[in-house]
Description:
The protein has 146 residues and is α+β, with helices and mostly antiparallel strands. The chain contains 5 helices and 6 strands. α1 runs antiparallel to α2. The longest helix is centred in the first third of the chain and has 24 residues, at 2-25. The two termini are 13 Å apart.
Amino acid sequence: MGMRLFFLILVLLLVAGVSGAAAFFLQGRKKKSLLALLVTIGVAITWYCIPMNDRLANAMVFPDDTVYAKGYSESSFQEIRSGDKVSTVLVTLGTPFSQTTTLEDGKVYWSYTRPGLNSDSYWIRIVIIDREAGCVVGKVSEFYAD
């Protein structure tokens, strides 16, 4: 969310700067028309930037130092669905780096990524398993920036 806010502020500052310059050089009706056009463009760019994938934004600011488990692939991770059996996950993604069990709900979190040696910023890829049912109940897919 921090990067989205950064892009929003950047776009708004750009629009304000260009609008101010236009107001200085133009008079009357032309000034109002250009100002309306610039604000519309700024809103359109902001609308586009806010929901965009964080991969580009994070790559520009935070170094990606993700280490993936042996056998892992992003396309295979995307194929995993709720209800898939543990055996399917193991065949599709391989053995995770770690398995953490929560005592409250009995879910097991299989981590397929970890940060590397150069940075703590990395792509988190976790499959959540219901231990009793032996099947997938969720996934975590996000970028951790530090």
